[in-house]
Structures are given as C-alpha cells and as structure tokens.
Amino acid sequence: DTGVSQDPRHKITKRGQNVTFRCDPISEHNRLYWYRQTLGQGPEFLTYFQNEAQLEKSRLLSDRFSAERPKGSFSTLEIQRTEQGDSAMYLCASSPWTVNTEAFFGQGTRLTVV
Amino acid sequence: AQSVTQPDIHITVSEGASLELRCNYSYGATPYLFWYVQSPGQGLQLLLKYFSGDTLVQGIKGFEAEFKRSQSSFNLRKPSVHWSDAAEYFCAVAGGSQGNLIFGKGTKLSVKP
Questions:
Q1: Averages of pLDDT over each 10 residues, chain A, 114 residues
Q2: What distance in Å separates residue A11's CA from the closest CA in chain B?
C-alpha cells in the first residue's frame, strides 16, 4: 500500500474556473477527510465521509464546494467559480473505522487561483 | 469550543540542542492528541499520539510528548535536534464525533549548524 494519494499535486487556474481534485485513500479505510491549509495556518477541517456517506461538513465549505465519494473508495473535491481566496493546500486524510487510530494524510494539492 | 494553541510561531535551535514545542488545548472530554510534522510543500506525517494510559508517549525520530491534564498541555520534546528536523510542527486534537482534527497554527522549527 502506497498511502493516501492525491492528484494533481499542483493546480493553477484562472479566477472563475472550476477545478476538481482527487483523493485515493488507503485501501479499506472507510473514513475520509478533506482539509484546507492556507499559508501560515494549520489545516482546517472541510468535510468527512464514512464510506460513501458525507456525514459532516464544515461551515468553511461554501456552496461553491462539493465533495463526493462514490462507492466509498476515492473521493473528489470540486470548487466551482474559483476565487483568489480559494488558493490553498487541500489535504486529504483517511483512517480505518477503529477506535484509537490516527489519520494518514496525502501529500496535498496546492491550488493557486490567478 | 475545542481549540489548540501553539504559542511559538517560530523557534530556532542549534543542532544537538534540546527542543520543546508547546501545545495547549481546550477540550471538554478526554482528548485524543497528536503531533504531526510537515516539510515544505508536503503532507503531514504523524510523530506521535496520545489516547490514554501512560502520559509520556514516544514517537518516531526520537520525539516524545507529555500529556498534562492539569495544564491542558501536550508539549513535544526531543533531547538532541538534527538538521533534518527543520520543518513545521502541528499539534492537533480530535475534536468531533467523526474524528476530525482541530489543529494549532503550527510552530516552524529552524536548526542552526
């Protein structure tokens, strides 16, 4: 197992365009999280999936953001009509459905909106 | 509301010197606590975690942390810092029922030769 994989690693887009990021969690991890990290800050929670069900969304997740996890495997995070304030690192993490375990993070997708 | 405070934004230590990074948390119940390290442009790597039991936990790369409930602290320590330890360090608490993490703002560690 190669860990949590995110694609692309970097994305530059023009303001107003839509972007989509992909996360492949560790196999059989049924918990999946998305976080956003801006410069000089710690990661902030965006949303959580248990298998294919999106069970929690942060207030940071505006209407322009949507996340899916079809079939409980990989997940996508889409941002519509990007704004400069969306520029950040988007991190995905996964963990198994057991108590007392940590989340494993991917390398992240760095988004720059110009 | 749950929160994590890392009072030091940037710390510089000499190689071979000891290190302590501070972390204070605010959480109503028994906290699950973590320290992660992040190299520039990279994701987060877990250094160590505390769930219960022994309040002194050992992690990877020679790091340890001590949970002190009375002080709401979970400070990270290393007896002798290596140049490769230069990175940003994040303390986190598992804040939600779904296990999502609440992070501090991080402490950037620089190591002088």
A1: 90 98 94 94 94 91 94 95 97 83 92 98
A2: 13
